[in-house]
Amino acid sequence: MTIIITGGAGFIGSAVVRQMIDETGETVVNLDKLTYAGNLESLGAARDDPRHVFEQTDICDGEAVARVFIRHRPRAVMHLAAESHVDRSIDGPADFIETNIVGTCTLLEAARKYWDGLEGAERGAFRFHHVSTDEVYGTLGAEGLFTEETPYSPNSPYSASKASSDHLVRAWHETYGLPVVITNCSNNYGPYQFPEKLIPVLILKALAGEKLPIYGKGENVRDWLYVEDHAAALRLVLEKGRVGETYNVGGRTERTNIDVARAVCSILDELLPDSPHRPHENLITFVADRPGHDLRYAIDSSKIERELGWSQKESFESGLKRTVAWYLENRIWWQRILSGDYQVERIGLGKEAAS
Ligand SMILES: NC(=O)c1ccc[n+]([C@@H]2O[C@H](COP(=O)([O-])OP(=O)(O)OC[C@H]3O[C@@H](n4cnc5c(N)ncnc54)[C@H](O)[C@@H]3O)[C@@H](O)[C@H]2O)c1
What we know:
The chain is an alpha/beta fold. It has a domain at 2-190 and 224-252 and 296-313: NAD(P)-binding Rossmann-like Domain (Rossmann fold). Helix content is 41%, strand content 16%. It contains twelve helices and twelve strands. The strands form three sheets. It has a seven-stranded parallel β-sheet with strand order 3-2-1-4-5-6-10, with helices on both faces. Strand 5, helix 6 (157-176) and strand 6 form a beta-alpha-beta unit. The longest helix is centred in the N-terminal third of the chain and has 23 residues, at 94-116. The N and C termini lie far apart (46 Å). Bound molecules: nicotinamide-adenine-dinucleotide. Nicotinamide-adenine-dinucleotide binds at residues 6-7, 9-13, 32-35, 37-38, 58-60, 80-84, 99, 103, 131-133, 162, 185, 187-188, 194. Nicotinamide-adenine-dinucleotide (NAD) binds at residues 6-7, 9-13, 32-35, 37-38, 58-60, 80-84, 99, 103, 131-133, 162, 185, 187-188, 194.
């Protein structure tokens, strides 16, 4: 059987592809445009597996996407391709509208036309799984959790574009009967995360002895989930999730950003006893807050736990240690990214990124 995974060269998509190749007999069609965030080196050994087929395709290109459906005849689509970085969405929202909204609509139309042509058991078993974020729910105060019933209230261009895409997917189910499932997940961390997200930024800057920028006072709270646990949850929802339903996925691991920074520093102190930058915590510095910075996200994941039996395997402490160790042991992966035209620079102040 064959599954199309969009965004399979990205951080979370590559984890799903690696698990699918390692743990199932499925053929995976990896449909990815390879933007700045896509990297086939993140696939490891799965990249050259005969059951991994790479299609360099833009989800906004309807004809090309339709050809991929006809060529591979998938039993399901897992849709992860997106512009995913909040700071980039503040500096340049247009790409987010294009890929996350127009691209999702284009993909939905291609999936619907393909599904319309299926019959019998094949048609009944087809699934369109849309992968989204808890940021669509907006921000929480000190109390409470996001449930699947929490009203949408997105605050950044990124979260607004993801909210729009969730609504489109839901509408394609209600209007056309397309068999969809939706997941909304909290902040992921782990190996192969692009080096502009919080945890890789902290690790790489600390290694270089540079200041570790923390927005505002570092009091913003995120609910962290190890990427392999998220990938396992996605596979479970694809197989067992009820059609038309949303499942929230979270780690029950609320941490302030300053706590995350201190934890990364103390792991580095332990793993690098000879580092001239110890104690790494002295590198922490507070910088101007992100505009519209949501205070707190926290997920109630009891529905997926209760209905589908999912639970996370990795604690934040063990997962963070594995992640820091991975960045220390896989310098070639991130050095190749950094040696290109990408720099770990401050973005997301609503101005064009510095050249
Ligand atoms: N990272 C998180 O913490 C997190 C949390 C919850 C949900 N999500 C969602 O999960 C999905 C994956 O996130 P990620 O962190 O792996 O993102 P990522 O930025 O690491 O990867 C995105 C991938 O999509 C590809 N892509 C971008 N535009 C495309 C286009 N027009 N056509 C085809 N491919 C395109 C990129 O090349 C890249 O490989 C996204 O939909 C994101 O909104 C992410």
